[in-house]
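Figure 6 in text form: structure in, sequence out.
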């Protein structure tokens, strides 16, 4: 199993700084640690459709 610290290191290396999703018990350790990334933005969505819409909107506005 991949550790949360390894995932955060990969995201930082790839310069990924926008995260959105629906909180759940499986990924709670990962989502709780997004604050460790500098200049990161984590938007909690109410459902999966909202999370996808937020991600699409972010891409369209930033091209990232």
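Output sequence:
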């Amino acid at each position: 199993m991949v550790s949360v610290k390894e995932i955060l290191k990969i995201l930082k290396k790839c310069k990924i700084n926008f995260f959105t999703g629906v909180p759940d018990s499986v990924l709670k350790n990962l989502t709780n640690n997004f604050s460790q990334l500098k200049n990161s933005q984590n938007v909690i969505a109410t459902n999966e459709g909202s999370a996808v819409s937020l991600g699409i909107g972010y891409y369209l506005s930033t091209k990232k």
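Caption detail: Residues 45 and 53 are 10 Å apart (CA to CA).
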